[in-house]
Automatic annotation (TrEMBL):
It comes from Pengzhenrongella frigida. PROSITE patterns: PROKAR_LIPOPROTEIN. Gene3D superfamilies: 2.40.10.120. Keywords: Hydrolase, Protease, Signal. This is Serine protease. GO terms for biological process: proteolysis.
């Protein structure tokens, strides 16, 4: 994986976004700024199917889940995706301090959550469901490479399903979880509520999970290799504490 090095993020590189589709990579961006926030700046209007085929988009929308976190003193929204028939993946900060997790699918169906577990090492969480989820994708065997096309599928601002596309720009040390190691940097736009969205390759396989972006519109994802390693470690996830209100 090509590391992200140099000075400030070049404005030209940041502005490329989904337009960098000609096979020539923009200049590698510099170090990631420290002013990171969870998916907090609106992005442009999404494409119809991103980099996915029509069949790939159909599976993507069926496995994406809208998450509404009703806490003791707050209400927030996020996204997630099915890992199997009764398990979904999202971000730790999406389910934190929850009194009630409300899940819904692309067809408007409400799904009851039974339990949530969060990882200490990365911004990841597992949510178990009572009812079966409509579909679940395949996890890619390997992390993507710089220049690979990616598509983000989620529910920004808790609204309708959106699809945005871009390319992998490189990798950098996770600026929010220093012990995690490298995370991927992509120019695929994300918006408030996109946290926990699946990042897919052109075959519709999951290659990562959105968890943050910076003020320069660079999005950060936990790579699928890290997700696989943590899912294989039974001690990586512990029950998520709920609010006490």
């Amino acid at each position: 994986m090509t590391p992200v090095r140099g000075g400030r993020l070049a404005a030209a590189a940041v502005a490329v976004l989904a337009a960098a589709g000609c096979g020539i990579l923009p200049p590698q961006p510099g170090p990631v700024p420290t002013d990171l926030v969870p998916s907090s700046v609106p992005g442009p209007a999404p494409t119809a199917t991103g980099n996915l085929s029509p069949d790939g988009f159909d599976v993507a929308q069926r496995m994406a889940v809208r998450i509404r976190n009703v806490g003791c003193n707050s209400l927030s929204t996020g996204s997630g995706f099915a890992l199997d028939a009764t398990t979904l993946i999202t971000n730790r900060h999406v389910v934190a301090d929850s009194a009630d997790l409300q899940l819904s699918t692309y067809d408007g169906r409400d799904i009851a959550a039974t339990a949530a577990s969060t990882a200490a090492l990365a911004d990841l969480a597992i949510v178990r469901t009572v009812d079966e989820l409509p579909a679940f994708p395949e996890l890619a065997e390997a992390d993507p490479q710089p220049g690979d096309a990616v598509t983000v599928v989620g529910y920004p601002q808790g609204g309708q399903l959106t699809v945005t596309s871009g390319r992998v720009m490189g990798a950098t040390t996770d600026p929010l979880n220093e012990n995690l190691g490298e995370v991927l940097v992509t120019d695929a736009p994300v918006e408030p509520g996109s946290s926990g969205s699946a990042v897919l390759d052109t075959q519709g396989r999951v290659i990562g999970v959105v968890y943050a972006k910076n003020a320069d519109d660079m999005s950060f994802i936990v790579p699928v290799g890290t997700l696989r390693e943590m899912l294989a470690d039974e001690s990586a996830f512990t029950p998520s504490p709920t609010c006490s209100g």
